[in-house]
Amino acid sequence: LSPPGAAKPLRHMMMVLALATNSLCTMIASSGTTDFAWRFNGRVWFRPALVRVPAGGSLPAGVRVLSALGWTVGGCVALQYDDSPIEDSPSYREYVTMSAAVFKRGAAGLWGSRLFVSSRSAAIDNRAIWGVPAEEANIRFVEDGDRLAVDAAPPLVGGEKPTICVSGWAQTRSASAEGQPVGHLPVMWTPQLKALWSPFVLGSVDEATQPLETRMLRLSGKSMRLHWCPQAPSEQLSLPLPFGLSVDGIVIEIGDPCGEDL
């Protein structure tokens, strides 16, 4: 039995969900293809953090920061690719400084202010193929460690080819060799902004704002694990939350531009 008055909010929620789902289908259809031409395989670790709201002008017009009392959600993402479309270095490492929870046209996302890769060819190809403003860094993922931790984080701004070190990386290896990836989770990606978005869009692009080239991603994985990984606050890491999520055997598939920008 539903409590009195519950049916009306439920109908409203279902209508919004239906509208958002229809928008997603329209976006996928408007791309003119269901082909995901680029495929990355490996593992990823994400740890959220509370971070200060970025300074004005950090984000394009029309992208709003979701915040409370001057704080928003950010964190760090560390990825190790065993195989990728990067011809000269298909196996490489990546680290992203996440700096704000954001919102545009009904889609919620996480914005990465800086994205680092471990090889020059990966930086060049990310820029040339997808328009990602990737930076080269010395990135080490150390297998040893009781828990995952960022031992050396990059500066929030500046710094030439910084050193980044994550320890406890063995904790991310949770999939069996026989496991098969599952999921095929659709996610929107705006590569120039280095942001991932929920695949629900409402309305049309405001002509007064800057359109963001949008691609569809399809995410799958073999194994997912929650981690207890507390770490002291710092200027680079802000206020890390004491938990994180890793996915081993992750498959990231990248599609062509959707045809309808966010």
Shape: globular
What profile does the largest beta sheet have? Answer: 8 strands, antiparallel, barrel
Average residue pLDDT: 88
Strand content: 35-45%
Calculate the terminal CA-CA distance, rounded to whole Å. Answer: 40 Å
Q: Class by helix and strand content?
A: mainly beta
**Rg:** 19 Å
What is the share of helical residues? 10-25%
What string, H for helix and E for strand, traces the elements in order? HEEEEEHEEEEEEEEEE
DSSP summary: helix tally: 2
Please state how the strands of the largest beta sheet are arranged side by side: 1-3-4-5-11-10-12-15
Number of strands: 15
Low-confidence stretches: 1-7, 12-33
Structure description:
With 262 residues, this protein is mostly beta strands. Helices cover 13% and strands 43% of the residues. It has helices at residues 7-30, 120-130; strands spanning 38-52, 64-65, 71-83, 92-104, 107-117, 135-136, 138-142, 149-152, 163-167, 182-190, 195-197, 215-221, 223-228, 239-240, 243-257. The strands form 2 sheets. Strands 1-3-4-5-11-10-12-15 form an 8-stranded antiparallel beta barrel. Strands 7-9-8 form a 3-stranded mixed sheet, with no helix packed on it. It is globular, with a radius of gyration of 19 Å. The model is unreliable at 1-7 and 12-33 (pLDDT under 50).
